[in-house]
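Most newcomers find our protein records easier to grasp once they have seen one. A learned vocabulary of local backbone shapes supplies the integers on the structure line. Here is such a record, shown just as it appears in the course material:
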Amino acid sequence: MSLDTLAARTSHPLEVKHSRFLARAAPVQTPDEALAFLAEIGEATATHNCWAYRLGGQYRSSDDGEPAGTAGRPILAAIDGQGFDQVMVVVTRWYGGIKLGAGGLVRAYGGSAAECLRLAGRTPLIAWRELHLAYPFEHTGAVHAALGQYAAEKLEEHFDTRGARLHLRLPADRADALTTHLRDATRDRVHFANEGSGPSPDSALEKGR
């Protein structure tokens, strides 16, 4: 499943048995950004400010005083269920005098977060892959011509007496096709080394442009 982040901050209100809920979400790229968003919009006069964020393999959530598992986890489940990454969601509750029970809280927190994200503008996230390759000079034209076809970007290029060495990146789902194309175009004269994504799968996710 492809992942998206938010195009911009967004919010969605909900009322359940006189309790008011306000879900607010923001695109974030680090845990510090997520917690800064919480510090910025958390309501000191509210009963609870529950939250969750997803940053690739990193995630955290908080029930902020609600019964364990009734707020933070449903918010995180809403982020995942809506296909989002690099997102922080805070759901603020003002208690209305009627207890909702564990099931009611799960539905209120998870539902308000899910609806907030469902209605939001989305920006695709792209998983990038980096390739290092070497080839004889006479194949420079064929290699360069292929880069544009597969949306590959040159990061570094060096020439020496043996030929050219190229460091590039491209959308991960196009890497195998480019590799096959270059081997065919150069009659298997291009050599690949140190293939893979960046330092971690999470760091290879960026917003589509």
Remarks:
- Residues 143 and 202 are 29 Å apart (CA to CA).
- The domain at 4-120 is CATH 3.30.230.30 (Ribosomal Protein S5; domain 2).
- The longest helix spans residues 101-118.
- The longest strand covers residues 122-135.
